[in-house]
Design a protein that fits this description.
Layout lengths: L15 H26 L6 H15 L10 H19 L6 H28 L2 E2 L7 E5 L4 E7 L8 E10 L12 E6 L10 E2 L4 E5 L6 E9 L6 E11 L2
Antiparallel strand pairs: 1-9, 2-9, 3-8, 4-7, 4-9, 5-6, 5-8
Helix pairs in contact: 2-3, 2-4, 3-4
């Protein structure tokens, strides 16, 4: 008589890992559904996109840098979209389709994030008007006279180039006009590289490389004009920018 084989032991907890994973997935799905349901149906939730857009607008307003308004066009457009869709979301209290409020909320939040990123890019790399922070005038100069313009730069205005526009006028308006033959040359760039151009006439513009870490920028220039002419050199525009 053949002896009976002992029964094969059953594996312990054969589906334990799968069950745990499934339970976690179900729990995560339930939490997600609760959050979505609250965001779409709770009366307070419709204010969140508007509050977020207004908070971002207040923060950008308190840290607004100088510079031409044209570089803020993208930021302004995204702010308008964010505020507009957020206001509509507040007004739509009982939508026939939940997808309407979901779309409004999503568009408003994405536009707010995009506006913030656009603003930070301009604040970090955009142009800054520095005309009022630079030595404005070098008066009564003769041919070959050197002079220096000085610019004070705060840490938040660090850029790697300066666009400088100069006016060259006759010191004595009653004397023969020397403006057409007068020019200003950059003696040496303050931070390596080469300025563009090397010399300018009245109303011309230098594009000068500068040290982004420097808090004081010295620009050494030389006036070239005819013998006997006396000229005034004035800064008409100075703009810090990144190349």
């Amino acid at each position: 008589m053949t002896p009976r084989r002992p029964p094969r032991p059953e594996p312990e907890h054969p589906h334990h890992h799968v069950t745990a994973t499934g339970d976690h997935s179900i729990a995560a799905g339930n939490i997600r559904n609760i959050v979505i349901r609250w965001a779409l149906q709770h009366p307070s939730a419709r204010w969140l996109p508007l509050l977020l857009a207004c908070a971002a607008l207040v923060v950008t307003g308190t840290t607004w840098p100088d510079g031409p308004a044209s570089q803020y066009v993208l930021w302004g457009a995204l702010v308008a979209v964010a505020l507009g869709t957020a206001v509509v979301r507040v007004l739509v209290q009982r939508p026939r389709d939940a997808r309407i409020v979901a779309t409004l909320s999503l568009v408003s939040v994405l536009a707010t994030v995009g506006a913030w990123l656009a603003f930070r890019d301009v604040a970090t790399h955009g142009e800054i008007d520095a005309t009022g922070k630079i030595t404005s005038k070098a008066p009564d100069l003769v041919d070959g006279a050197p002079f220096t313009l000085t610019l004070r730069v705060s840490p938040g205005e660090a850029r790697d180039a300066l666009r400088l526009t100069l006016a060259i006028d006759d010191h004595d308006p009653t004397a023969p006009a020397c403006r057409p033959v007068s020019s200003v040359a950059l003696t040496s760039p303050p931070y390596g590289g080469a300025a563009t151009p090397a010399a300018i006439h009245d109303g011309g513009t230098f594009d000068i490389p500068v040290d982004p870490q420097a808090r004081t920028v010295r620009i050494d220039l030389t006036l070239h004009t005819d013998h006997g002419c006396r000229m005034d050199v004035t800064t008409t525009e100075a703009t810090l920018h990144d190349t």
